[in-house]
User: What shape does this take?
Amino acid sequence: DAKTTQPPSMDCAEGRAANLPCNHSTISGNEYVYWYRQIHSQGPQYIIHGLKNNETNEMASLIITEDRKSSTLILPHATLRDTAVYYCIVRVANRGSTLGRLYFGRGTQLTVWP
Amino acid sequence: EAQVTQNPRYLITVTGKKLTVTCSQNMNHEYMSWYRQDPGLGLRQIYYSMNVEVTDKGDVPEGYKVSRKEKRNFPLILESPSPNQTSLYFCASSLSGGAYEQYFGPGTRLTVT
Assistant: This one.
């Protein structure tokens, strides 16, 4: 699985957009980009994933550069409850894969302040 | 409600006293997994199971056992716990090993003295 690089910490004002970057310059053509978050020692929570195209769901948007070497997770209107560690993970995703493990790096500690 | 449950949530025990941490999911998922989380080391996979009676080692399996007799349950067994197994443990499940989304339990904080 490709390695990812994320800033260790970021701040964001409540109500503003939080833009969390991730570099994955060695990503392979069949590897997806995933984002999970972990709120203070709770179980990690899936946020979103993508392969090439930008994706949006009720939680966030994922912007992947054209060369796929980096991506940005966008929380459009951050709230205090979004304070968490955010993990960017790249891995293959196909139904028959036995490689279900997720490699969590150090992630980015996002602090949303009032 | 779709969920992964773990019990107990907190446990303090002594070296050598066998213990089991239970994990159950109600989503009919094929894939289940155990992770441990330690400061500075992130989450590391201990064991995983692709389906009933199919289990395999993850990155840090030493000192642990698992079983998968039923699809919904995946207990983690520590036959002879040691202080270096003091950690925060998470169970996770997903539709398949290659599925996009994994669901995590709330965690079990284990202290071995």
In short: The two ends of chain A are 37 Å apart (CA to CA). The interface with chain B takes residues 32, 34, 41-46, 49, 92-102, 104-107 of chain A (CB under 8 Å). Strands of chain A lie at 9-13, 18-23, 31-38, 45-50, 55-56, 61-64, 70-75, 84-92, 108-113.
